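If I may wish for something, please sit down with the protein I am sending here and say whether tokens and residues agree:
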Amino acid sequence: MDIVNEILEREQKKAEKYKPIIVEKHLEVELDIGTLLASDTNDLDLKTLQSDKERDNYLQNLSRDNTQLLLNKVWELPTERIDEAIVVRLPAPKTVLPRSKPVPKPKPLTKWQEFAKSKGITKKKKDKLQWDEQLQKWVPLFGFKKAAAEKEKNWLIEVPQHVDPMTDMYEKKASEKSEKVAKNELQRLKNIARARKVKIPRVGLPVTSDKANATQLATAAVVAKASTASLGKFQDKLPKEKEARGKGIHELIPGKERKRKAPIPTPQAEKENNLNLLDKILNKRPKIDIDKAVAKRIHDEQVQRSEEKKSMKPGKGKRKAKGGNATNFTAKKPKGGKGQRNPNKKNPGRKRR
């Protein structure tokens, strides 16, 4: 009997470690199995939450009970075995989760992708290395080792009979390679235009009317300048050339840095930015031009002195002006006395003020 009692006590201690899977609540917990979301609307024990000793245990038990209810609901769904593991197919979610940005649109297919899809052509993964019979070694399909292998293999190039014997075949091969790169770049730009539903001719500018406007000509000039091997870095500017601006120009220019949108700031960062802006506006002081202020002060003093001098001079005579106002004037006395003329002067004329 003692052995039986010991076994029972041991089993009872083990059972006490694990809590039951059946959880009872006053109000049923709202469950969304699609998003594995459980919403408990029952009242909380405020006294327990306010006590520092029992708060953590209370929240831990509450989370455990709600998680147990969610798992019980999950295991009620039909199960299946995949790779020696039992899985459950979750239903469609009921809760709509908000998004900070709109759902991205699917990327449009290029002309080759549409052709391959219509013909059923599947993309095959290429090998990184390829055996070269001439060099008798494995050569990579791209990279600097590929260029070194091509240089080693093509140390001598035969000139065809229909070509001028003085033709530089290395230069011709390099020009053909650059033309191939330019053709691929043109095809990429055409794919962008097709995705944006822009009508483009086979040659020339993508214009919608008979004549191209200034913006289209500036865009075409910038794209043509950036089509060189240096992406237009060493190209001289045209006289009176303006930088092309507009939506989508950065995508047409190869190697141009795209402007990334700034991430949405957090409420705390937005609050700090607004407070800093407000401080700048309130603490802004007008800029004072000291030289201009001093010059204006000196000018005002000179005007004031001149007015004071005019007011201090007594008026000895008055005459009427054309406007009818009387003006002060002072006449010079003749040397020979009042009313006498100088005999040395034949015609003294009118006395000036």
